[in-house]
Amino acid sequence: MAILSIVIARHQPSTQQPKQTQQLAAASSSVEKDYNSAIEYTSGMNRVRIDGAKAVELLQRAAAKHYPEAEARLAFFTKDGRFGVPKDAAKAEDLAKQSLSDGLIAAADHGRATAQEALGVLYVMGIGVGAHTNEAAEWYQKAADQGYAEAQRNLGWLYERGTGVAKDLGKAAELYQKAADQGHAWAQTHLGWLYESGTGVTKDLSKAVELYQKAVDQGNAEAQTSLGWLYESGTGVTKDLSKAVELYQKAVDQGNARAQTNLGWLYEGGTGVMKDLSKAVELYQKAVDQGYAGAQTNLGWLYATGTGVARDLSKAVELSQKAADQGNAQAQHNLGWLYQNGSGVVKDLSKAAEFYQKAADQGLAGAQHNLGLLYQNGTGVAKDLSKAVELYQKAADQGNAGAQANLGLLYENGSGVTKNLSRAVELYQKAADKGNQQAKDNLRRLGTMTGQATQPPAAAPSSAASATAAPAAPVIAVGPESTVTRQSSSYMSWIDRLTQFVRDYVDSTGDSNMERAVSFYAPTADILDEGLKNLGQIRQEIVNHNERWPLRQNSIVGDIQVQEHVRGESYTIRFDQNFYAESTARREWSRGKVAVTLEVRIQGGIPEITSLKQRALERQKGVLSAAR
Questions:
Q1: CATH 3.90.230.10 given to domain 494-623
Q2: Which of 179, 331, 336, 610 lies at a CB distance of 3.0 to 4.6 Å from 187, suitable for a disulfide?
Q3: Is the pLDDT of residue 266 over 90?
Q4: 348-385 burial, b for 16+ CB within 10 Å, e for fewer?
Q5: Cβ distance 543 to 522 under 8 Å?
Q6: Residues 190, 167: contact at Cβ < 8 Å?
Q7: Domain 222-364+477-492 matches domain 382-467 at the CATH topology level
Q8: 45 contacts: CB under 8 Å, gap ≥ 6
Q9: Nearest to 366 by CA among 403, 335, 316
Q10: Which CATH architecture has domain 222-364+477-492?
Q11: 382-467: which CATH architecture?
């Protein structure tokens, strides 16, 4: 009924109430000026520097005099919680209805561009009227035809997304350009993104930088964030992390969630700033409070690893789920990883495959790799080597070293593909060039690196073919959903990750979860200088040890020393470990301290122990008393 009454009002202007007629005939020049100035302060139109607080003050002053456009704009700000206005859906609805009562439709019908654009906003937001984007497009078009920059920008936004109109990126660019020529900072920012990505226009990074800079000069937070990313990544400009931090901070000061996330990432990694995990968590949380998926993903992984916060797997799952529900590919990947490992949720391999599939469908290489492993091993899905090959190929084409190595193995063995040794070597080489240890091992075994094999020909290659092959750890990608995507990064220094890896490993040696204990090892590993052992042999040795010593307590003494050989690929880790073990059946106990040396390689983003050596520093044995 509300929509019907609006339509009648639009098409029967002669029936408007006297109050509306009076307002329509001659709106006070002072309230018009206040409203137009407010739009300039929010949009940067006419090259005015953005000042949200000033804009709200002017809108409230105009709304107090029943200026309908001001009431409609405040309704929009109140619905979304913009420019410091508290979010309040009920109040937004009241403001929108008041604007209609005060003559917004009548003013729009009489050709007032500001009213036409404001009415379009209400239709897009669905406040005071039903949500009808086609109606919004019609009103925006009428105002845009009068050269009103705010309407040109809004109509361009609809054309860019295909909302209420047929998607037309060229038309979007044309409209953004018209508004940008009037100094509209938001239009400059949108147009900058189109030039940066080559969407609807020929890609032109210098043009993108120019447009972003114009909007930055007017204080637009989204442009500050986008330009900050270009400086961080060295895209279209000389890489300058200090400049990136400066721009992000300006946007953060305006409450921009994307900037909060990107700056949080810099603090997490100590990139361009002193590393400060508490600051990273604080920034992520601010963006999470705004529902930003990138921050939910990143903060979720910090909770999963206990980095900068107390480890909380339930919180990790909760945040990852929220981001995954918004379609964030990395969150979907991370959630798949949590389900695959039973971390914070009941282990569910089919659920893991489901989330990996969602992320893989968005082209995420890590998810394609992990899903390929599941199909190769028939884990959580029906075994399908052809599907594994397809997924590995997609990830390999993006330069994923783990996928290149695994695909090489399939070509070497003729699994899911026609056997092709030269193709296998080619893929191994690509992965080895990135430092992938598995690929290097396989090349040496085939004699293509040293001229002769270093292992017997019958030896199985180090591979993902093992049913226990570990998935790649989550690699978190941050960036705007509608603008630039940040390049993948581990989001934790490898020193931090490996330190946590060792703590988890030592913790696993004291519990009875066999699969957890085995998961720390590579498919083949040299244990205690006894030569290479496969996972089956390692599992049996753990079983034997656990049977002999049912009660075990282990703890790390002092610092964990991590020596990097190839960044992100191979490391030596040394630490001292106290141990205590007892067997009531045999009435024995043993305690002491050992020096432990681990050789660790990174396979598909996850650490694997390839060598474990121990040297006794202290040791005592005894007999349990009868009373015990």
A1: no
A2: 179
A3: yes
A4: bbebbbbbbbbbbeeebbbbbbbbbbbbbbebbbeebb
A5: no
A6: no
A7: yes
A8: 39, 149, 150, 179, 182, 183, 184, 185
A9: 403
A10: Alpha Horseshoe (1.25)
A11: Alpha Horseshoe (1.25)
Token pair, residue 390, equals 């397809």
CA distance 299 to 288: 8
> Higher pLDDT residue, 455 or 78?
78
Tally the C-alpha atoms within 13 A of residue 352's C-alpha that lie toward its C-beta.
28
Least confident of 10-19, 118-127, 252-261, 574-583: 10-19
Pairing of strands 551-566, 521-527: unpaired
The answer to whether residues 326 and 297 touch, using CB atoms and an 8 Å cutoff, is no
Q: What is the 3-state secondary structure (H, E, C) of 336-377?
A: HHHHHHCCCCCCCHHHHHHHHHHHHHCCCHHHHHHHHHHHHH
Question: pLDDT-derived band of residue 454, with 50, 70 and 90 as boundaries?
Answer: very low
Predicted confidence (pLDDT) at residue 483 exceeds the cutoff of 70: no
How would DSSP label each residue in 391-443? HHHHHHHTT-HHHHHHHHHHHHHTSSS---HHHHHHHHHHHHHTT-HHHHHHH
Q: Tell me if the pTM is above 0.70.
A: no
Kindly tell me the burial class for residue 548, based on how many C-beta atoms sit within 10 Å of its own C-beta (0-12, 13-18, 19 or more).
Answer: middle
Phi, psi of 121 (to 5 degrees): -60, -45
- Distance CA(628)–CA(622), nearest Å, equals 13
* Dihedral angle computed from the Cα positions of residues 194, 195, 201 and 203, in that order, rounded to the nearest 10 degrees: -130
Instruction: Please give the C-alpha separations between residue 250 and each of 40, 244, 258, 296, 400, in angstroms, as whole numbers.
Output: 20, 10, 12, 22, 35
CA atoms 482, 486, 490, 494: torsion sign = negative
Packed helices 89-101 and 113-125: angle between N→C axes, nearest 10 degrees: 140
pLDDT of 281: 96
Give, for 614, the enclosing helix (H) or strand (E).
strand 606-623
Domain ranges of the chain: 222-364+477-492, 382-467, 494-623
Encoded tokens for 498: 């490996």
pLDDT above 50: residue 399: yes
User: Given this model, what pLDDT does residue 479 score?
Assistant: 24
Q: Quick one: pLDDT band at residue 463, thresholds 50, 70, 90?
A: very low
- What are the pLDDT digits (tens) for 182-228? 999 999 999 999 999 999 999 999 999 999 999 999 999 999 999 99
Helices (H) and strands (E) in the chain, counts: 29, 6
Predicted confidence (pLDDT) per residue in 272-291, tens digit:
999 899 999 999 999 999 99
State yes or no: pLDDT of 27 exceeds 60. Answer: no
Helix (H, G, I), strand (E, B), or coil: what is residue 282? helix
Phi-psi sector, 308: left (phi>0), alpha (psi -120 to 50), beta:
left
For residues 107 and 510, which has the higher predicted lDDT (pLDDT)? 107
- The per-residue pLDDT for range 310-359, each reduced to its tens digit, is 989 999 999 999 999 999 999 999 999 999 888 899 999 999 999 999 99
Amino acid, single-letter form, for residue 165: V
Alpha-carbon dihedral of residues 284, 288, 291, 294, nearest 10 degrees?
Answer: 40
* Identity of the amino acid at 440: K
Other beta carbons less than 10 A from residue 36's beta carbon: 17
pLDDT band for position 448 (50/70/90)? low
Sign of torsion over alpha carbons 64, 65, 69, 70: negative
d(CA 413, CA 391) in angstroms, rounded, equals 17
Amino acid at residue number 526: D
